[in-house]
Design a protein that fits this description.
Number of helices: 2
Shape: elongated
Distance between the termini: 40 Å
Structural class: mainly alpha
Number of strands: 0
Strand content: under 5%
Helix content: over 70%
Radius of gyration: 19 Å
Number of domains: 1
Length: 86
């Protein structure tokens, strides 16, 4: 009576490489930016100075680039998979 629903798109290797990997890179970038924000908050509260060190700026840049690269990866993946077209 009730059939078991299995979304076959998530089991497709192309979808996993093209879209889900980009989603993971996006989450990684967001996590790096969250870490940079926590570092900013902790350092600013502790020293009452601007914690704009080179390492902090590098972490922010890495997080931002990873976030945008993940979104781009997903969009390209959707186009390659045939879900998104213009």
């Amino acid at each position: 009576m009730f059939e078991r629903y299995s979304p076959t798109i998530f089991l497709d290797k192309l979808f996993t490489e093209a879209v889900m990997a980009g989603w993971i890179v996006t989450l990684l970038g967001a996590g790096i930016l969250l870490l940079a924000g926590a570092w900013w908050s902790f350092t600013q509260d502790a020293s009452q100075q601007s914690p704009r060190s080179g390492l902090w700026r590098g972490l922010c840049t890495l997080g931002f680039v990873a976030f945008l690269a993940g979104i781009g990866w997903q969009l390209v993946g959707y186009v390659r998979f045939g879900i998104l077209n213009w």
